[in-house]
Amino acid sequence: MAFEIPRIPLAEWCDVALDWATEHFSGVTRAVSAVVGAGIEGTTDFLVGLPPWLVIAAFGLLVWRLTTARIALATVIGFAFLWNLELWRATLQSLVLVLVSTLFALAIGIPIGVTAALSKRFWRVVAPALDMMQTMPSFVYLIPAIPFFGLGAVSACFATIVFAMPPTIRLTALGIMQTPAELVEAADAFGSSRWQKLFKVQLPLAIPTIMAGINQTIMLALSMVVIAAMIGAGGLGGEVWKAIQRLEAGQGFQAGIAIVVLAVILDRITQHIARHIRRDRQIERG
């Protein structure tokens, strides 16, 4: 009789764990889903209800305030182009989903990154988990989202948060850990407490690195737009998904180009802010 190595029942263990979590926490997650879903839909409906030219002008003025006139003009042209393609509602749905997911990812990821930077033991636990999260296929994140939150934008938001959060955690931790040792020693010499050292020395110097993590988080969140459309997220990803189902190549390329335009706008804004912060820090240190 041939010797057989027993199979590890990993799939069964995952099913049991997911069933247990769904049974015990689905009530809470469905309540959260109702609140977050109402917020996403309300924000989207409010923006869609406004005249597109007014929203575009407001975005342009906001970007001009945060960046430069050139980036603001590019933003206005980009959004006007998306309006002309009759993808305005889908664009706003995707934009709201990306921004909400990014805000939640930052709210969760930055504190975890700070904790990981201050605790080597915690970092040794977090680092392998981040490696696994960043190598896991993005489709896998949709699996637990549906039992907890059902189909729709909230499930897509949950999957996007988990998928896009690792860069924020990793770069926040690395930014703090890479603070020059002489500055930390100087803060200790002046009798700074741990929190004073963190908020007055380490975090300010780590902001450019954290901004790079925010930029990556936004790009990853946007990359989930098409995948999240499979569970009813709508938006530009929904347009791509419908084009795939109907074999409408032109509509699919049009929606794909719209996603690229939105990605370029968000990328240029965050990169400019990061460069501006980095330049200010160099001036302060110089």
Automatic annotation (TrEMBL):
It is found in: Cell membrane. It holds the Pfam family BPD_transp_1. Residues 91-270 form the ABC transmembrane type-1 domain. Its main location: membrane. Keywords: Cell membrane, Membrane, Transmembrane, Transmembrane helix, Transport. InterPro entries: MetI-like, MetI-like_sf. The keyword Electron transport does not apply. It is a multi-pass membrane protein. The keyword Transcription does not apply. The chain crosses the membrane at residues 53-83, 95-119, 139-164, 203-231, 251-269. Belongs to the binding-protein-dependent transport system permease family. This is Proline/glycine betaine ABC transporter permease. It comes from Ancylobacter koreensis. The lineage of its organism: Bacteria, Pseudomonadati, Pseudomonadota, Alphaproteobacteria, Hyphomicrobiales.
